[in-house]
Amino acid sequence: MVRENYEKICAGEEVRENLIHLREELKEENGRREFAYLLGGDFSKLCELLSHEDPKVRKNAALVLGKMESEDLLPVLFDAYRKEKTRFIRADYLKAMSELDYRPLLAGLEQQLASLRDVPEWQPEEWKHVSEEIRVLQTMVLRCSGVRHHRFSGEKEPEDVILLTNRRQREATAEQIQKGKITMLAGGVRVDGASLKDIRQIRTYSELLFPVRTRTLLADQPAQCGELLAGPVLTLLDRIYNGAGAFLFRIELRGQNPGGSPHGEHPSREAAAGADVFCVGQYQEKKGVYLRKLSDALEKASGARLINSVTDYEVEVRLVLRKDGSFAAMLKPSASFDGRFEYRKEVVASSIAPVNAALTAYLARPWLKEGAQILDPFCGVGTMLIERSRAVKTGTMYGLDLFGEAIEKARRNTQRAGCIVNYVHRDYFTFTHEYLFDEVVTDMPQTVPEGSRGALRELYHRFFGTIGALLKEEAVLIIYSSEPNYVLESVRAVPEFHIEKRFLLNEKKQTTVFVIRRACR
């Protein structure tokens, strides 16, 4: 088909359609290899098509040339791009060049980007295509010149922050805050005048957000939202970060309806069919189109100091949709800002979230013993033991797991965390030890190899029926479980255990932290 399509193109038969078919063939490596062999380095016919009267022929010819892996084509494509007058295909020349090593053209690309940004006002019908051209140019320049990240410097002055936490245990985070005015929110804690140095030591919040003070952001006016956001966002970023240059950002929509049906109305047929649609009131827009309008306006109003990037971004602009159709705006720093759980590079499917492990350890602090000998019989990648060691100084720690991959990952995570844990690749039910333990801390299994609910219930009963043999008198068990009824059944069946405290973390999933004491004989 490659030869047949190309021969028809050379003969002038349905050129546009055959170029499209040829592009499909070139998506596969075998197709590209066959076509390169067929051309033998002669690109003259395709280059000739860059001057064709049909703009879609020019577009497809450029995209085919981009697949040819020949840097000799770069000046040809770049020259055609600069001469191209049809706006809607200019970005395609850039996409073709981006397939090649375009570094020699970097200065010219930067000049083109600056010239597009220097135009005070584009016509609405042009801006859609100009913004796409700017996005492709930005991506190419950033990929070539590298991303220059800024250094966080916001610990010097008090800041207002919102800490998202476990909804049922917000107080666990609030009581650790030493400075600032605290306001309890439905999903966390707001702190006005917080010490960020102190806040970043707290391990029980899941996200830290900076509220952005703006005029009312009407969600059904994306361009205006972007224009109103630019100034306040830059003011905040310049206050908490050091370093020159643009900030890379992405936009995240949250709230009742980012991609659902309009507030107070029945969903449209498109929305009801599961389309990715942003709706508010009577306003409906495909979410991708909506985000482009908003981010384009934000970039433009910031004078290109804010650049939209879905990867390697420094900050997330989070917009939370309110019931009245307006947005609350917040900034979330990138993951590099939050180093609390930097050790946890490796996970398995069943791994507990580190913030949940940290919350478990914090809630259990009154029962934790300094210098305790600790066992995690279902340790996974080691998160529970690492977070237990962060809460109160520990003695010797042991972690067991039947899953060998988890044990290897646990060792690497623990080394990064600077902890010492003795990991053993073994089934807990076959484990023996020469001395007894002061504590058990574990995230109980959610499934068993047999896969049945009955088998999981039996595992709980076996565990509580046997763990006493490894424990000292007055030992404590810190159990994180999504099967609280199995815990209750199992503890009732073993008279030496009694539950001292229960903390519900998630009502829907029934996730619960139990503090269980082994009584003296």
Characterize the structure shown.
The protein is an alpha/beta fold. Helices cover 40% and strands 23% of the residues. It contains 19 helices and 20 strands. It has helices spanning 2-10, 15-25, 29-39, 44-48, 55-66, 74-83, 87-97, 106-118, 124-145, 170-174, 196-199, 222-240, 269-272, 287-301, 354-363, 383-391, 404-417, 453-466, 484-492, and strands spanning 151-152, 159-165, 181-185, 188-194, 205-211, 217-218, 241-242, 247-255, 277-280, 283-286, 306-308, 315-321, 326-333, 372-376, 394-401, 422-425, 437-443, 471-481, 497-506, 511-518. The strands form 4 sheets. Strands 2, 3, 4, 5, 6, 8, 11, 12 and 13 form a 9-stranded mixed beta sheet that branches. It has a 7-stranded mixed beta sheet with strand order 16-15-14-17-18-20-19, sandwiched between helices. The model is unreliable at 260-274 (pLDDT under 50).
SS content category: alpha/beta
Largest sheet, strands/sense/barrel: 9 strands, mixed
Q: Quick one: how many beta strands? A: 20
Mean pLDDT: 91
Q: Given the C-alpha coordinates, what overall shape results?
A: elongated
Q: What percent strand?
A: 15-25%
Radius of gyration: 30 Å
How far is the N terminus from the C terminus?
83 Å
Query: Helical segment tally?
Result: 19
Low-confidence stretches: 260-274
Based on the structure, what is the oligomeric state of the protein chains?
Answer: single chain
Specify the helix fraction band. Answer: 25-40%
